[in-house]
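Thread: 2-acetamido-2-deoxy-beta-D-glucopyranose complex, take 2
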Amino acid sequence: MFYVLASCLAVIMFGTSVAVEPSCPVCSKYEYQERLLERVLSNELELRNTLNKITETHAQVEDTLKAMKAESAKINDSMHALDVKRRDIDDEMKSLRKEVQEKKQELTDKVDGLLVTGVRNLTGNVQEMSTIVQSLVTQTSKELDILKGTQFCG
Ligand SMILES: *[C@@H]1O[C@H](CO)[C@@H](O)[C@H](O)[C@H]1NC(C)=O
Ligand SMILES: *[C@@H]1O[C@H](CO)[C@@H](O)[C@H](O)[C@H]1NC(C)=O
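Output below.
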């Protein structure tokens, strides 16, 4: 009695299942696997594209870094060249300043020497002139005396 009931129930259930899903379960399974495969393939393609993009970006970054390094080296070289030039100019300025200082001292010494000689010459000249004037005065007074004597006698 129980077996008959179970069999009936099984038949009813099977019938319902067939009615709800007319296509065979095996086909459905394949369809699912096919869709899964498609999705996996699509994901792989997307992953490959992303990888390519990453590789490209990496290459670009590397190129940029290389260019930046080259630029940095160029700037460094320029800075060093400028430093060397600045030092050269500093040295040149120092020697020029020294030369000017020496020339100035030389000129001052020369002017001082000229002044000393000039004053000495002037002193000498004044002495010479005063001697001349003195002798002139003496001679004139003598002549005056002579003149006076002549007047006195005459
Ligand atoms: C910068 O340049 C100088 C001389 O050109 C060099 O000696 C030095 O190593 C350089 N420094 C860097 C960081 O490249
Ligand atoms: C000083 O006098 C001498 C000759 O008396 C002359 O040769 C010389 O040029 C003079 N110096 C100056 C600075 O006037």
